[in-house]
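Could you please review the protein record set out just below?
***
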Amino acid sequence: MEKLNYHQIESLTSNKLFGILPDGVEIFEYTIHNKNGIELSVINYGATITSLKIPTENNSKTDVVLGFNDLDKYINSFLLPSPPYFGTTIGRYSGRINNGQFTLNSEKYQLNKNHGNNHLHGGNYGFSTKNWKFIKDSKQNETSLTFQYISEDGEENYPAEVLIEVTYILTEDDELKINFFAKSNRDTIINLTNHSYFNLDGHSENILNQELLINSNQILETNNEQIPSGKFIDLTNNSSNYQVKKKCLETMDTTYVLNNENCATLYSSKKNIKMTVKTNQPSVHVYVGGNCFDEISGKENSMYHNKSGICFETQNFPDAPNHSHFPNSVLTKDSIYTNNTTFKFEKK
């Protein structure tokens, strides 16, 4: 595959005021780019990706993620019946936890319920709504941004104080690397991910003409509330099988069990872009459906709808704390949690 080509520019980190929170705290947008012209912008509210611009034809760039132009729209999006979480960092636990309950070290915990009878994406005020501290920008041979958040003991009823860092790296091989790091002062559960909605044709388009490949032959069986039963569904002769690339479905809300680090690939024939996803996580939750209601006005006055983007939530299994045969979700005292995911962009 060819690399993306654009005019050669020097690596740069810049920032600008993005908005002010109701308590008067200023939120900034930080922008970096690599020498090939890929440009990434992140705000410290939710450590949220606001734009990702990829060089395309005629020296132009295509913004391939959904988002907003101002802070108030991000804040107000969490007041919707089902928030879209555009580009945000999800935690302390990504995905659903059945009845908001789990047992750890023989003690039962009741988390806040924010999705019917269940706990979703960290609760009422998860990491997506927090003011993250910007702690580090580009260093020698690495164009990057690092944000830090300390989740207090008892936040959303989770046990333990947890220090979390997320680093966004743009490589000269046209990769966006998202690396999560966390450590805790006592045992807790954790499952972090980024919730960007991708659209390789541009954030104002729909994704139905793009082709998808997912390196998985099993998905999690779930009930009508998307809670895992603990069983797995074989994808042989199943419409959810994407081991051979085909066009995206109009609706997807599925956890794929990954065979190895090669997670998924998305193709755009319109923009001639291929995006390959790799991760060290055991699953990817693929989401199309949008929570956009045809009433969310995004960047450049685009009206987002339920076919505007596709999420690749690389993570542990939803509800893993309640299934002993699922991958371990416990972060023990003084141990280290990592989630490393790479999105690589090439000419198709």
Q: What stands out?
A: Residues 4-11 have pLDDT under 50 and may be disordered. Residues 71-77 form the longest helix (7 residues). The two ends are 7 Å apart (CA to CA).
